[in-house]
Amino acid sequence: MTTTYGQAVIIAIPQQPSPYTIGSSEQYTTYIEYESTARLVMPYRTTDFLEAERWIKARIEELSDPRITEAYLPIIAYTLDICMNYFRQANEVFHQERMAYVKSIIETVLP
């Protein structure tokens, strides 16, 4: 699905069926990717497709929220990846380095 913030993708990962498991033998992971330059990835796998879909919807809502708080650090890192790619394409080395520095600071506090 195409969104304002990139392509939203849910991937089904088939699992080996086990006689000891009841329910789905698939797991899902998802991400939002902006023009192959930045990727916001679900940090876990789920057996519930609707949960993966809810994760995407929640990230899109967060991307639409202009607030800058600790809760939005993964979203801010995603935005910085987009900016860094833009500066790389525009050959703006100084701005690219500044964005990389800011991102490294943010990544030190991300789980």
Descriptive overview:
The protein is elongated. It has 2 domains: 1-64; 67-111. It is of the alpha+beta class and 111 residues long. Strands 1-2-3-4 form a 4-stranded antiparallel sheet. It has 3 helices and 4 strands. The protein has helices at residues 49-64, 73-89, 93-109; strands at 2-3, 6-14, 26-34, 38-41.
Strand order of the largest sheet: 1-2-3-4
Q: What shape does the CA trace take?
A: elongated
Helix-strand category: alpha+beta
How big is the Rg? 17 Å
Largest sheet, strands/sense/barrel? 4 strands, antiparallel
The percentage of residues in β strands lies in 15-25%
Number of E-type strands: 4
Order of helices and strands: EEEEHHH
Range of helix content: 40-55%
Mean pLDDT: 86
Tally of distinct domains: 2
Number of helices: 3
Cα(first) to Cα(last) distance is 28 Å
